Amino acid sequence: MRLLVVFFFMTSLILFSSVYVSPEFFPYTGLLPLLIPVFIALNLFLAILFLFGRIRLIIYPIVVLLVGWKFFPITFQWNQPSSAENDLVILSFNAMYFNQAWSPKSKESIANSIEWARKFPADVKCFQEFQQDYSTPSRNAIKLISEEGHFQHMYHPFGGSKKKSQGLAIFSKYPIVNEGTVFDNKQNNGSIFVDIKVNKDTIRIYNTHLESMNIPAEQLGELDGIKKHYRETIRKLKNGIVMRATQVKLLMEHISNSPYPVILAGDFNDVPYSYTYFTVRSVLRNAFESAGKGFGFTYNRVLFFLRIDHIFTDEAFEVHQFRTHREVDYSDHYPISAKVSLRNQR
To answer: Which residues pair with 337 in a beta bridge?
Structure first.
């Protein structure tokens, strides 16, 4: 029993430390943080077991839980929403191409997805996997969501034709005074930004879609699929983790040079127990941690327990509310939104 407890103790501490080790240098260490929830649960079970058994070994799981306490607030929150006079509402939505690439015959599903995105009352709307179709009026997402110019926009396509393409998009009801690209992998991942003028202040908004895993969720949800494809799955997980480590390094360098207060939103394709999340969290605050409620899961497929879509802000902002819109199931990601305000508006 003592050997087993010591093993759990040492392994837990190694796992907790792995979120600070870049997968660029040690690729497979990026897989270790995925086991953190499992070992926290094991140590919690041991602590309860030893408490009732009055076993002195309880000191080991207690120390682990104290050291790993930082993982509890990134997992579960119970904040009460508040408001401010000058709330700024941010929406982030991986729209899965508004279903056009997946169910091109489902006109109703496509129309509902675009219509929800158009009607949602946000001041700034960030879309990943945004599909633009100039040839079909009912699927001309830029025209519909911008409300024919009421919202200014930046659209960065990754590929396609002049008539139909996919990419990243930001819509703002406030004037866009500057825009740019942080990185672009020429496929479907990248990061863009806009500077918007809100009254007398200028704010920089980043919309990011970090490297995807390209692993079918249904495959991970079936035991036979895991056995058959486990090597390929591990390889894709490792490659995705390494690529995201490189991308987040570029992103944070760009953010550090921003002359304006920053809001970062998007699909990070990474859970809170990751090098990516903790790298961003070391500089910016996560809106779910500040004003979320529950677990905030954002993935709408077999692995429903994943929170991989995030909104971060710097210290200039106060976060009043964070929501995961689980009632909106048009995509494989649920939309997320946050209400924020500048702490010292001029």
So the answer is: 91, 323
The Cα 177–Cα 194 span in angstroms is 8
Please check whether residues 160 and 296 belong to one and the same domain.
yes
169-199 burial, b for 16+ CB within 10 Å, e for fewer? Answer: bbbbbbebeebeebebeeebbbbbbbbbebe
Tens digit of pLDDT for each residue in 220-249?
555 555 556 677 878 888 899 999 999 999
What amino acid is encoded at 159 in this protein?
A: G
Which residues of the chain fall below pLDDT 70? 101-106, 215-229, 345-346
103 in the same domain as 39: no
Q: How far is CA 86 from CA 24, 150, 290, in A?
A: 41, 20, 18
Q: Domain ends where: 72, 91, 111? A: 72
| Whether 46 contacts 8, CB under 8 Å | yes
Beta strands in 31-82 (DSSP E): 77-78
CB-neighbour burial class of residue 296 (10 A; exposed 0-12, middle 13-18, buried 19+): buried
| Cα(103)–Cα(101) distance, integer angstroms | 6
CA distance 198 to 206: 16
Q: Indicate the pairing of strand 262-267 with strand 77-78.
A: unpaired
